[in-house]
Write a structure and sequence with these properties.
single chain, about 130 residues, alpha+beta, Nuclear Transport Factor 2, Chain: A, six-stranded mixed beta sheet, 4 helices, 6 strands, globular
Length: about 130
């Protein structure tokens, strides 16, 4: 496994373990965080706020993880399936009642100095809304 693959794998292992601090150790201080249909967050502090919010509203496990990286280790991607439970209503989204969902997703990364400097996550929001609204 390359250094870039190891970094991305550690990031997702921390995610699956609910280890916010472990995720934060994998990102640069100036990380750029882009989420599907959301605002861009700049910096580790904003990323930490997002992680805290997600930990309250959702319980998720990523399965079927496949990681891809460029030969120079500066870019990467991951594909996975999100198995989740919607725990607390997120503003502007359907009411949370503990609904489960399964959603294909992916992410793109920039890496610098052995850490993630950008993560961009994509999933089908309409599919998620349909699942939690059923």
């Amino acid at each position: 496994m390359t250094d870039a693959e190891t970094t991305i794998a550690a990031y997702y292992a921390a995610f699956n373990a609910g280890d916010r601090d472990g995720m934060l150790r994998c990102v640069t201080e100036d990380v750029e965080h882009r989420v599907n249909e959301g605002a861009v967050r700049h910096g580790r502090a904003k990323f930490a706020e997002f992680c805290s919010h997600m930990g309250v509203s959702y319980r998720e496990e990523l399965r079927d993880l496949v990681i891809f990286t460029t030969p120079d280790g500066t870019r990467g991607a991951a594909e996975f399936t999100v198995h989740g439970q919607y725990l607390q209503t997120d503003p502007g989204l359907p009411e949370a009642r503990g609904q489960g969902y399964v959603l294909p997703a992916g992410a793109f990364f920039d890496l610098r100095g052995g850490k993630i400097s950008r993560v961009t996550t994509f999933y089908n929001l309409s599919d998620w809304i349909a699942q939690v609204s059923a």
